[in-house]
Amino acid sequence: MGRKRKVLALAGAVVVAGAGATALFGRFSYAPMPDVADLANPTRSPLTTAFDVLGRRVSPAEAEALRRTEDGNRTLSPENGAVAIDASVVARGREAFYRETFGNEVFLTDVMGMLDGAITPFEVVRAVAALKGEATTNLKVPLARDIRIGERTYRKGERVATGLDVPKGGAFIIGIKSFYDRGHLRMGITCALCHAAVDPASGKVIEGAPNADLNAGLLMALAKNSAAYFMHASVPEADAASPGAGNRPALPDPAAVEAATKVQVASWPAGSFDSSADRVTNPTSIPSSFSAYGEPYSWSGREAIGPFSGLSSLNNNVHAANSDTTQLAAAAPWLFNLDPETYLGIVLRRAPNGPLRYDPSGTLRPSEVLRAADPTPASPGLNDYAVLPTYPATNYMTDNGLFASAPGEPANHANNAMSAFQNLLRPPQVSADVGTLRAGRAIFERAGCNTCHSGPALTNHRVIPAEEIGTEPSRAQAGAKMEARLSPPAMFATDTPFPLPPDPKLVPIPIADDKRPQVLLAWGQGGTKGGYKVPNLVGLAWTAPYLHDSGVSVGPDAGKDLGVPGTLDAGIAADPGNSLRALVDRQVRDRVVAANAASEKARTARVTGKGHNYWVDDQAGYSADDQKALVAYLLSIDRLVEEVPTP
């Protein structure tokens, strides 16, 4: 019976992927990419940039003028860091957004055991088939076995909310790529998993909208080897190592580390992810990919330099730093105060049975196990990386000196192409009363919101000190330890082939003197306490809940659906209008903050809903109608301000 279920699971996975059964006898991979007709937001901003030169936008007219001189041609050269942008690059960016894993399927499947835990391919296939062509923003999957996470035991057959999105008429999950290799099934993730979502009204895909209910933390907690992500959580149990015999590394108790990691990652609110490997549980909201003029990027603004003003750096670090934790071993001494062998032993010890599982009683050390089974021996870790000579040092362009790259095209090209694609994305158009919107914009300006929220994307591109904005202080210092090992910012020339040639050309990335204090603040370095970037406001109707920790969350019933416990944790989507009101009304916010504080789960994840104490309420002299108009205006922002005709 067990063999029959496995065969059915494999066959089902192939059916879901849309391939024929013949794929079971060879190699096969598939990731869905919706047709334009299946998009809720097919309209894009016009392509007005011909080149990006380390964040400087060069228009077609300027590019034509530059090409007439020798100096101008040098400016637009790959050796100067220039990225040429045209329709083919945008098309490659869209394809990479949906289909490029950079090899993370090996870590997720063979190390973390995402398919060997309580959720199995067979149950996922059954859950998708049960939709019968209908869409869902939150696939419910029955568990294949009992699993304990903290004080709660999830029972076999219990249907858990995954937040995985399936569009109408589709038999696939957005952002999941399936691999079948002669009997071995793997799953990888693409950018679309977090940065595309299904519109609940139409069942169509919204490119660029955050997957606001993706339960990434719970999915990782349900995996076989959650401990492979212990460095992204508060797990002191990893430090209680017992000496190993002979040449074996000292290792902590495996059950204790696994149990603690499961509790910590399961505390992340739906729609959040902890991208900082600082050994502190501090998830942040998944951002949108409505990214044009939204620089700097990430919640702290630390992705600020290089191509596309840091957007390519953000795209890169998702895969170069977050989807394969084996690459962190070389940095373990100064980041985690752990010996590299101990670090790898923790990561690999509970991997599913296979070549990447470390056996403490065996003859191989953890690094030898990794090296023997590594599909990418030319780079550290398991993904496809172009490696700077300064690896594993941080250089403000890349956390670790790695650039996730696709073989057969220039190093880092897919990340740059995705930046070009993302900068054209716009959310679905919002219909609203023009008079109300004008009144709301007037309140926006009267309240001083435009002091920070200015410019085309309604951000002034600044990082605000944590003590000023009033949000979680420990999260703002997530990059502080990386100051111990810094190298001058650099990247590869944008035409450098991958795999790399013997002596690849490096491009230094200058940081202007007036920009350096902001970079240090964003990284929590240089004696600062870190900060939070001023977010852009395009697409607010699709990005609830609000603040960097998702803490300002109110559901449809504003009287009782309060905070993360009353919304996301209860399976209730945050209502954008009610949540925005809580952002600007101190009385509502106090109730939201109190609801978060009463939840042990929210306290574990350091989700408070505090900060950004700028009010548009009766105490500040605004009426209920003023507040309503402001919220309506904020929800109407569906494109860059410069694209909106002046009334």
Automatic annotation (TrEMBL):
Source organism: Methylobacterium persicinum
The protein, known as: Cytochrome c domain-containing protein
Keywords from the named record: Heme, Iron, Metal-binding
Highest taxon in the source lineage: Bacteria
Span of domain Cytochrome c: 435-638
